[in-house]
């Protein structure tokens, strides 16, 4: 034990490490021993390396080359797979193109067949329309005769053809034929014939009778259609309004010229809905029923004249 003075002036006790003293004393001999051991170890490693089995060394080299070969083989395999994939894609494109070409060929064949069928249908349509128009022409009566019976027969034929056409249009076969021209021809011929009933009420009073106001017998060239005041009056056929005015005997009245020798007269109207010179179509509203002029009650005095001569409306009114 040694004593020393501390900063505070007191003594402190320090233990001396004997191991450190020993190492300091024998430091040089210990370094020499360590150097000898290191040299001996190095000699042993060199000897073992020199005397190692050649087969083992060769095996190690083979393993090293094999590892290198595995990497190269994997790369070759990937390249081969890529080539195969590209080849498959090329083959698939070729197959798709062939299928597309086949479908195009089928479409062209179908289109040719459709065109051929359409031509056949057009020829059939022309044949049917020609037959219909020929039949229509045979139904027309020569207007040079100018007789009431001939016009009445023509009107009946046209109405019959129109009804047959309407029935035919409901059949599947009608979908394959354009009947517009035929229908328009019938309608145009029929529209200007005064065949439509102009108002409600019965067609009575045509011919010889006692005058309802003055009491004498006379020829009455019209029918009187009794109906309430304000009942609509329609044009019996298409044409031009020749007169729309008031007369002391006729009251409010209308005359329509149908352009084919026919005129129609509508008397005792409560109201006129047209004026002179106006074009009207069959079925257009032209006035209202009344009792104006020489009249004993609300009714429509309706005349049909052919070239100025009166005819019985019952022979022409069919619609």
How would the blueprint of this fold be written?
Layout: E1 2-5, E2 11-14, H1 18-25, H2 27-50, H3 54-139, H4 148-168, H5 180-191, E3 207-210, E4 217-220, E5 223-226, E6 232-234, E7 239-247, E8 251-257, E9 262-272, E10 279-280, E11 285-289, E12 299-306, E13 309-311
Antiparallel strand pairs: 1-2, 3-4, 5-12, 6-11, 7-8, 7-10, 8-9, 9-11, 9-12, 12-13
Overview of the structural elements:
The structure is a single chain. The strands form three sheets. Strands 5, 6, 7, 8, 9, 10, 11, 12 and 13 form a nine-stranded antiparallel sheet that branches. The chain is rod-shaped. It has a domain at 146-319: Glucose Permease (Domain IIA), CATH 2.70.70.10. It is of the alpha+beta class and 319 residues long. It has five helices and 13 strands.
Terminal Cα span:
154 Å
- Which descriptor suits the 3D outline? rod-shaped
> Mind telling me the CATH superfamily name of one domain?
Glucose Permease (Domain IIA)
Fill in the CATH topology of one domain: Glucose Permease (Domain IIA)
Number of E-type strands: 13
Q: What is Rg?
A: 62 Å
Q: What proportion of the residues is helical, as a percent range?
A: 40-55%
SSE order, one letter for each helix or strand: EEHHHHHEEEEEEEEEEE
